[in-house]
């Protein structure tokens, strides 16, 4: 995928807001492969302002519960990737796709942060990794398992409530997400 400068994105969004051209014609004029790219930029700009167009210099590590909240929001409200990204202040909707795929394959474990890259080749790093795994006490392992089970039970309760009353649950979630987004934007 082509990477566009923040300035270029801003100019395209401003040109769109002037109203002379639509998404498709702007894409054609500037050699952008799809109108959906411009649609995403305009939507991100409307929601997040100029920060919605900038590429982050550092990788943001999102906690597991945040990722789960985003996925639950999409499931319960039927929101699109872009709508969910805008709602939660994520300027890269494709992140949500990878979270969903990981969650479907591995469950909650799939949502945990995994460092990128190849591990060090030093002999000591392998020993350290083994020691780290062994250093967790039985109590710590059980606490971790309890935490995962609590999350799973909470999720299943919400799913059951949604199945029993989809409309009521949907309205409740929309109100909660809307009110929390208003707090975040202040």
TrEMBL record:
Pfam families registered for this protein in UniProt: HTH_28 (PF13518)
InterPro entries: Homeodomain-like_sf, InsJ-like_HTH, IS150/IS1296_orfA-like, Trp_repressor/repl_initiator, WH-like_DNA-bd_sf
Insertion element IS150 protein InsJ-like helix-turn-helix domain span: 8-56, 66-119
TM annotation in the entry: none
Residue ranges of the region described as Disordered: 111-143, 164-186
SUPFAM superfamilies on file: Homeodomain-like (SSF46689), TrpR-like (SSF48295)
Annotated GO MF terms: sequence-specific DNA binding
Coiled-coil ranges (or none): none
Signal sequence segment: none
Similarity comment: family membership: Belongs to the IS150/IS1296 orfA family.
Protein name (record): Transposase
Species in which this protein is naturally found: Alkalicoccobacillus plakortidis
């Amino acid at each position: 995928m082509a990477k566009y400068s923040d300035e270029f994105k801003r100019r395209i969004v401003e040109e769109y807001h002037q109203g002379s051209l639509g998404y498709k014609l702007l894409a054609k004029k500037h050699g952008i492969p799809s109108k959906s790219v411009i649609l995403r930029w305009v939507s991100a700009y409307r929601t997040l302002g100029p920060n919605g167009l900038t590429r982050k210099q550092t990788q943001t590590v999102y906690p597991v519960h945040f990722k789960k909240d985003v996925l639950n929001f999409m499931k319960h409200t039927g929101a699109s990737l872009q709508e969910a990204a805008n709602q939660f202040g994520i300027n890269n909707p494709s992140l949500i796709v990878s979270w969903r795929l990981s969650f479907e394959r591995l469950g909650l474990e799939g949502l945990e942060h995994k460092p990128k890259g190849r591990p060090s080749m030093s002999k000591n790093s392998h020993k350290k990794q083994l020691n780290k795994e062994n250093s967790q006490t039985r109590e710590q392992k059980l606490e971790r398992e309890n935490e995962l089970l609590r999350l799973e039970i909470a999720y299943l309760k919400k799913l059951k409530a949604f199945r029993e009353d989809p409309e009521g649950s949907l309205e409740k979630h929309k109100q909660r997400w809307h009110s929390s987004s208003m707090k975040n934007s202040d």
